[in-house]
């Protein structure tokens, strides 16, 4: 591959979205993209094992070891720059970061959110809580969104979305799994490929795919 685009995947937990990216890469579906670093916000998470099994360099920058968000964000940027990362993917990264990271990577940070933004997003909506809120409201479809990360939580330009049916007997856990299988694990690798192959333009807070 000529001039691969170096990608860092940031994780906080099980890392099934990281696995979807690893699998897509091994099938040749990330285009010019190359996962070259995994950063976990806490030690011992299973995502680190997934990285190790795939032979991808992984490091822990533990949120608990930094006093405030600014110190933590600075440590992240230092590691990303040291590793010459060009594209940052938040894949179940549940730690708040500040503008130092956005400024270092303008329009180059992607996040996957387990709902159809602007529904069930923003502060406090993460992981199972998103699905609990969707079931509480009684929506008939939910889904997933990949968006560009900007300082306002879950409000950046939308790259890809996919809808998923909500069933009457769903629990937060069954809905979470179906949204992962049918939406997140598909649209996240696809969005990473589009960015890696420079097929994306951002104008007036909207994403255009060329
Ligand atoms: C995923 O469902 C992801 O969309 C969600 O956390 C889960 C992580 O799973 N992210 C958020 O809620 C961000 N607001 P994973 O570690 O197995 O990829």
Strand composition percent: 15-25%
Named at the architecture level, the CATH assignment of the largest domain is: 3-Layer(aba) Sandwich
The secondary structure category is: alpha/beta
Number of helices: 6
How far the N terminus sits from the C terminus, by CA atoms, comes to 22 Å
Compute the gyration radius: what is it? Answer: 16 Å
Hetero groups in this structure are: glycinamide ribonucleotide
Q: What average pLDDT do the residues reach?
A: 97
Net shape: globular
Helix content: 25-40%
Describe the fold and architecture.
The chain has 210 residues and is of the alpha/beta class. It has two domains: 1-105, Formyl transferase, N-terminal domain (Rossmann fold, 3-Layer(aba) Sandwich), CATH 3.40.50; 111-210, Rossmann fold (3-Layer(aba) Sandwich), CATH 3.40.50.170. The protein is built from six helices and nine strands; from the N terminus they run βαβαβαβαβαββαββ. It has a seven-stranded mixed beta sheet with strand order 3-2-1-4-5-6-7, with helices on one face. A two-stranded antiparallel ribbon has the order 8-9. β2 (33-40), α2 (46-53) and β3 (58-60) form a beta-alpha-beta unit. α1 (16-26) crosses α6 and α5 packs across α6. It is globular.
Name the descriptors.
two-stranded antiparallel sheet; alpha/beta; seven-stranded mixed beta sheet; binds glycinamide ribonucleotide; Rossmann fold; 210 residues
